[in-house]
UniProtKB/TrEMBL annotation:
Any GO BP: transmembrane transport
Lineage: Bacteria, Pseudomonadati, Pseudomonadota, Gammaproteobacteria, Oceanospirillales
Entry keyword set: Cell inner membrane, Cell membrane, Membrane, Transmembrane, Transmembrane helix, Transport
Protein name: sn-glycerol-3-phosphate transport system permease protein UgpA
Subunit structure: The complex is composed of two ATP-binding proteins (UgpC), two transmembrane proteins (UgpA and UgpE) and a solute-binding protein (UgpB).
PROSITE patterns, A to Z: ABC_TM1
Provenance organism: Kushneria marisflavi
Length: 292
């Protein structure tokens, strides 16, 4: 073992760049937001006054915050389960493909390389009320589509765009999980007379439960935080706040409305909410995970 490897500071020196990034881009903004949530800033940002918990009580009593909370719940559940279900279906089908399997897998992974804002613009054009390709297809089915006026259609649009992008991330993990299942187990079940559907629910799905649990946590975090670009480029939170989620509302209140104290209080509540949700997932959902 070299002298450098035996030195006590060697591990810290190797981790220093990552620690600095985490400190600057996570802990520093988190501590600043926590501090600002207890203050009220003036309109010019030149002074601040200690306000105690008034920012939190004002946010929690706001009707628009309750609407954003419901939008976030609907959006997160739809995106998490939609992206995981479609990815599992595609991974199962891709795992059976023998010819040109690498081409199929590469095409299915590509959407994850697209930035959320670009994905939003792509789907916005396809569902554009006047020029969209998919809008014309819906019109042929006598379905009038205009997400700029219809809040339900706007929510469907942002959910579809978010699912499309996150689906590829889930696909990679599900495919790796499927390829890790011993073929002997499936062959033994087939010899015992178990059909494809029964083999999937009794062998494949239980063995994929660790992967599914990990993706459930990651998809929930994605739906809460990483979909801001998608929503901003497709609907901008509209129409009438129909697609305004919690992360988009704190952006509107803080950056556009210049309510830094209220926006900071929302960010603290959002952080607590996601932490509590993750704790619940580890406390109750993980019990059903089979690691062996």
């Amino acid at each position: 073992m070299s002298t450098f490897q035996r030195h006590r500071l060697a591990p810290w020196m190797l981790m220093a760049p990552q620690l600095v990034i985490v400190l600057v881009f996570f802990f520093w903004p988190a501590v600043t937001a926590l501090r600002q949530s207890f203050y009220v800033q003036d309109a010019f940002g030149l002074g601040e006054t200690f306000a105690g918990l008034s920012n939190f009580t004002r946010v929690l009593a706001s009707r628009s915050y309750h609407e954003a909370l419901l939008n976030t719940a609907l959006f997160s559940v739809s995106v998490a389960f939609g992206a995981m279900a479609i990815a599992l279906l595609l991974a199962t089908m891709a795992d059976r493909v023998l010819k040109a399997s690498r081409v199929y897998r590469t095409l299915l992974i590509w959407p994850y390389a697209v930035a959320p804002a670009a994905a939003g613009v792509l789907w916005m054009f396809m569902f554009d009320p006047t020029l969209g390709v998919l809008t014309r297809a819906l019109s042929a089915l006598s379905i009038h589509w205009d997400f700029r006026l219809n809040g339900h259609q706007a929510m469907v649009l942002v959910i579809v765009a978010a699912i499309w992008q996150q689906m590829s991330y889930n696909f990679v993990f599900f495919l790796a999980g499927l390829q890790g299942i011993p073929a002997s187990l499936m062959e033994a079940a087939a010899i015992d007379g178990a059909g494809p559907w029964r083999r999937f629910w009794t062998i494949t799905f239980p063995l994929l439960s660790p992967t599914s649990f990990f993706l459930l946590v990651m998809n929930t975090i994605y739906a809460f935080f990483d979909t801001f670009g998608t929503i901003d480029t497709t609907t901008g939170g509209g129409p009438g706040g129909a697609t305004r989620t919690l992360v988009y509302k704190l952006y509107q209140d803080g950056i556009i409305g210049l309510d830094l104290g209220g926006s900071a209080a929302q960010s603290v509540l959002l952080m607590l909410m996601v932490g509590l949700l993750t704790l619940v997932q580890f406390r109750y959902v993980e019990r059903r995970v089979q690691y062996h």
